[in-house]
Every structure is written in structure tokens, then in C-alpha cells.
Amino acid sequence: MKKFFLLPLTLCLLMTCACTGRSTLEQADANAPVTVEDLRDLTTLPSTSVVSLTQAATSPHTGLPILAPITFNVNDPENSRGLSTDKKEHSFGVAKNGIPHEISKATQEYFESTGYKAICYDTKSAEKVIYLTFDCGWENGCTDEVLDTLKEKKVPAAFFCTLEHIKSSPDLIARMITEGHIVGNHSAKHPNFAEISRQRMADEILECENYLRENYGYSTKFFRFPEGSYNESALELISSMGMTSVFWSSAYADWDVSKTKGAQYAFDTVTARLHPGAVLLLHSVSPDNAAALGDIIDWARNDGYVFKSLNDIKM
Which segments within 24-102 are labelled E, that is strand? Predict the structure, then answer.
């Protein structure tokens, strides 16, 4: 009789151990750290798991939910339609007396007549509006001061950043995003877009875009051509990706930090070239710009200008 009693007892113990071990394994899996790869396909997970994973998969830089990477199939990769590949180097002319230069006018007329999503200045706003933009290829210790001034003056801006800058300056990029500015796509490796294939163009943009999505939870719809060099094929390709190419109608030679001329020179040059609808290009590496920015903003506002975000442009 003892043998018959021992057998059920043994079976019960074995079943209890097995259940306990399974429960421990499931708990360990549930507590596993969440990676970007875990979010590639959430459709098979119960809704409670989706919420948990989404909350956990946030950017350590911005606190925003991480975005899945995107892909893009290049239309007409060989340019069989024969869109012009003649190189254009953006020229804006020097605006005077609050009037954009004829070169800027002609360039904007070309963009609008072709229907490509591109802008060098705003022809549609009834206000004396300015769009403040910065090109950021590397860091020279001036961007924090620029951001401090923008925050104090409550002015929005767009920072067009290369992938190298985005990777090397996570705190600055995060600050731009969390303080409400635009981080624009300035390509991954800063090539001349008039000299590369349509596929390479898309790859350059996607590499930068997907890094922002996966590391900052951020996506951008604005692109600036490296060196301001482009052609018709490039304009069409960028537009087909749903992005707007942003040029400029006012700028000055502020990128050479070995030739700084002081805050007063920056102030005088920038304010003399402003005009309604201006897309103002400055470089964030310039200590002159950083020092003069607050006075430039005050002068422009006193003259009736309003600073707006690129998101406000009517295309």
C-alpha cells in the first residue's frame, strides 16, 4: 500500500516543480530589457504588452517614443525621364532696403512653377515674417548660447544637421527637439547632391532620418542640400520623398571661424539684408552670430518682423 501512496505523491511533486520552473522563466522573459528590435512587429502581442513596450522604448535623449525606421523605393532610379542633372549652385544675391534680390525672386519663381517642394523665401505670407535657420556640420561651443537666446526671446528656429553632428552632440540635438525647434536633415556624409545618383541621395537622407527616429524618437520633413548644390533630378527626388528642400534668401560668410569680425559686424550685416519672407541662414559655429543674435532679434521685432517656424510656411 505504501508504494501506491508514494507514486501519486511523487507525481504531484514533479508537476509542482515543473510549473514553478515555467513560471520563473516566463517572469524572467517579461522583465527582459526592451530593444529597438523588439518593436519591429507588435501586431502579434496582446494590447497590454504593446503599451508596456511602447512606454519602455523611449529615447534616452529626449524621452520620446522611439520610431521604427522607414524605407523608400526610389522612383526612376536611372532617371530615364531625363530630368536635368546640370549642377546648380544656390545663389541668393544680397537683399537691400527690405527687398529680396532678383536672384532670390527668380529662384523662388522656378520652384513654384515646377511644383517641386522647395523654398528660398516666403512669397505667400502677408506678414513681415522671418524664418531663422542654422547649418550645423560640427560644434564650436556656440550652440548652447544660441539656444539660450532663442529660449529667452521665444523664437523658433531650424537646425540643419549632418549625421556626424547628430551623433556627436546628443545633448544639443535633444535640447533643440525638446525646446520646440526643428532638426532638419542635412544628409549623412554631406556629399554634393548634384554629383551623386538618385539612389545615393535617398540613402543619404534615410540614414540621417532613421538615426533620428531610432535614437531621438524624432522625424523631420525638411532637407537642406549640402553646399547648396542641386539639380532638377535632385529636387524631384527630394519632393517624391515627401520632404521640403529649404534654401535661403539671406546669409553672409559666417562659416569661416578663422575670420570672425565681431558681434557688431554680424549684427550690421544680418539686419541690412533682412526682408519680408526671408529664410535667414546662419552657421552655428560662429561666435559672432551667437553674441549678436539677441540684438538681431530685438532689432527685427522693433522693425515689425515676426519670427515663425518653417512648419508655418504655406507651400
Answer: 88-89
| Grid coordinates given for 39 | 518593436
Please state which architecture CATH assigns to domain 102-312: Alpha-Beta Barrel (3.20)
**Separation of alpha carbons 170 and 216, rounded Å:** 9
Single out the residue of 33, 304, 297 nearest to residue 153, CA to CA: 297
Write the single-letter amino acid at 300: A
How far is C-alpha 79 from the geometric centre of its chain's CA atoms?
27
The amino acid present at 99, given as its one-letter code, is: I
Mean pLDDT of 207-213: 98
Q: Tell me the HSE value of 185 on the side-chain side, using a 13 A CA sphere.
A: 28
- Residue 147 binned pLDDT confidence (cut-offs 50, 70, 90): very high
Tell me the C-alpha distance between 149 and 153, whole Å: 6
**43: Cα within 13 Å, side-chain hemisphere:** 2
So which residues are the catalytic ones? 135, 283
pLDDT in tens, 41-55: 322 222 222 333 344
